[in-house]
Amino acid sequence: MSKRLLVIIPDRLDDLVRKGEITERYYNPGNLFDEILLVKTIADTADVKDVQKMAGNAKLTMVDLPAPSFKQSLGFMPFMLEGWVKQGIELARNFNPHLIRAHSNLSSGYLGAKIKKALNVPLIVSLHTQPDVDMRGYTPWWPTWQHRLVYERYKVFENLTNKTVDWMLPVYDAGLVYCKDHGVKRAVTCYNALNPTHISLKNDYTLHNPVRILCVNRLIKGKNPDNIIRSLKFLPDVELTIVGQGELAEYEKQVALEAGVSDRVKFIPSVPNDDLCGMYKDFDIYSSHIEWWGIGKSTIEALLTGLPVVLNKREGGPDPVEYTPDIIKLVPNTPEDFAVAYRALINDQQARETLGRNAQSVAEERWSPRRAEARFVEIYQQALVEAHGVDIKDWQPDYRSLAEINATEGSK
Q1: Domain that residue 341 falls in
Q2: How many helices (H) and strands (E) are present in the chain, helices listed first?
Q3: Which of 45, 85, 172, 296 has the fewest CB atoms in 10 Å of its CB?
Q4: What does the pLDDT read at residue 403?
Q5: What is the pLDDT of residues 69-90, one digit of tens each?
Q6: What's the CATH number where 318 sits?
Q7: Structural domain count, the chain
Q8: Buried residues in 165-204 as b, exposed as e (16+ CB within 10 A)
């Protein structure tokens, strides 16, 4: 029997290919499935051969099915979405999936919910943002009323997805608050499955000269590292590498110029994830600024490497529950506070090494790629058993289960 998975995503895969963010088996944890139909609710130009790695051993087919825009659908009115939904249902009916997996509870989750209702197939949705906080919470009605109106109308997608989904999987614990507030019947935190083969451990905590700080982040509102850049005014023996791109890229370069530190700030738009995961160990400190309510993928990669990590306290509070002081040093978002934190770690090798080694140990227990992948496999298996009564012996991953990992390495 060919095992089939329908995956619905809102991402531009050509952007992921360009940035090198192609994670092995991301869409096919444990190589559970033989065939994957990947439906994209936004058009792009990615070639299937550049994405195949994310499907593991499965035969991958990709289809563009762009969701109608806000204007085209008169503000996401359901009757204006019907034609698009029918196309999605027809694609799914021809493919005949055993399971539907949607990334986000917006357009992709909505389409997945409609397909589930039509075909009676279990639906699993991952929650990558907290719409109440990360979207509506940071967008006031005035003067940004146009953006706020779009975010309000996203509730059309959210409401149907939230009440239809079999499993909602927030990628960080704070997402469980959103799920509880919106009546999701079953929600479990499942951190993003990270690069399973290229994360290298940091074993030498001797400082470089000059000291190397790494920041990996999209350069967008809510993830603005300008105060990290300005902190270098107080740290003449430090250089900063920023990996990322976005609408604030030119602004950040201007900040570096105005602060008089442009000769010590290196901007790299993108690095393939395999290479990036091998780079972390070659830095002394990892630092980032983020106001979103959750722990970022790059931060987890740095923790898994064993880098000492310095992050900002969230202005809106509270800080994510994952930000425990034994693995992350939190500071107010000011140049002076970042500088004080960096200097303390620079001047105290024991503190620097202890923070980094604690980070690696705790991160391995909480977020190791094999544990994350095994957790997804476990949930997929349970959904298949509940929906189809399948024999679980026919749905086994091609590596150790979460139970086996816990038995040999300890459970969380």
Answers
A1: 211-367
A2: 15, 12
A3: 45
A4: 53
A5: 999 999 999 999 999 999 999 9
A6: 3.40.50.2000
A7: 2
A8: bbbbbbbbebbbebbeebebeebebbbbbbbbebbeebee
